[in-house]
Amino acid sequence: MPSVLIVDDEPMICKLLSLRYEREGYKTLTAHNGQDALAICKKNAPDVIITDINLPVVNGIKFIEELKDIENYKPVIFSISGSIETLDNLDVNEQFSKPVKINDILDATKKYLFEKDNNIKNLNIPENFELSKEQLELISELTPGIIHNINNHISFISSSSYLMKKNIENEISNQPNNEKLLNDHKIFEKIYTHSLMIAKIIKSIKMLAYPVNKQADMEKKIISIINSSLDLMQDIIKINEIKVYTTCNENVELRCYPEQIIQIFINLIKNACDAVAKNDAKHKWLKIDVKKSDNLIRISFTDAGKGISKEIIPHLMKPFYTNKKRNNGLGLGLSICKKFMEIHNGEIEYDDESDNTKFILKFNAIKN
Questions:
Q1: Structural domain contains residue 126
Q2: pLDDT digits (tens, 9 = 90+) for 219-274
Q3: Share of the chain above pLDDT 70, in %
Q4: Nearest-angstrom CA–CA distance, 323 and 357
Q5: How many domains are there within the chain?
């Protein structure tokens, strides 16, 4: 658990920042002057320091300078207030002004801690590479058995939810205005739909592990695939109050394996939801845009995020690479998207020239 030291002579700022960081899973320490802050650093070596410049006893500038004297200690440092000119020669990672925008400092914390952690991991690349190879071999051996077991459970969920759905439909025919029955029917309908989708995803994963030399031959309207994907993600979209804007000619078709394209869309929609969930209402949006030329179909997913760090971009499509918390992702989403795109002779790319976070899918258009 990373630790954060918050140094400010205003107790309310310390309390607000502490509460927010603790909610995000960080351990927090506080100090109200530079002298106490320095003592905490020598004793606890916090990973991140957020310090005001105008501090009593020992000011923020002197406190930051004296941190250099602590042996083998290189924390991430953010300064609050103070002029840019004054701080030019200080070893700080980023400067913020009051009133403090907590989301900005949090985003910077995640960014710099990720970069710091990544630099440490890069020192052990040969050892980690061998470990990853062993993990992949183990996964390869276990996959058939895992898939078989999952299919058994999914079959049970699917058949049970279908029976419940049908039973409720019979009851609704006698009580068409019963709100509880209508809500229950909606729940079991969703369970049944999701169970079918999981079965299709497993089938697609099997296709990745044991590819067949068969070309996708189903022609499907892209708008229907988009709508199916959004329906499956509706709860997450609704809970996070994200607005989705779709631009697509309803007649544009794609030759594909629909369940694989839905899985690609779901991954991109989920990533977008994760990225903008904590934004203010004005910056909670996702735009899905479909453009077709004579030979090419371009589908872009653009969200209100500020883009992806340049250091991260080269690793985006690598298996098991993730910048999310360990419990929130395995780092397989985009790598699987890439594999599914290759099956369709298509491409997935990140647009690093966009002002926002934008992924583009490219498919060959159906020739008339």
A1: no
A2: 889 999 999 889 888 888 988 899 999 999 988 999 888 888 988 999 999 989 98
A3: 81
A4: 15
A5: 3
> d(Cα 158, Cα 328) in Å, to the nearest integer?
26
Q: Tokens representing 270?
A: 């989920």
Question: In whole angstroms, what is the distance from residue 120 CA to residue 114 CA?
Answer: 10
Assigned token pair, 103 = 């989301």
Q: Which helix (H) or strand (E) covers residue 51, if one does?
A: strand 48-52
Question: Is 125 domain-assigned?
Answer: no
Find the CATH number of the domain harbouring 319. Answer: 3.30.565.10
Residue positions counted in the chain: 368
**pTM score of the predicted model:** 0.50
d(CA 196, CA 155): 9
Can you tell me the distance from the alpha carbon of 296 to that of 263, in angstroms, rounded to the nearest whole number?
21
User: For residues 299 and 351, is the Cβ–Cβ distance under 8 A?
Assistant: no
**Is residue 243 within 8 Å of residue 214, measured between CB atoms?**
no
Take residue 96 and report the two structure tokens written for it: 């913020």
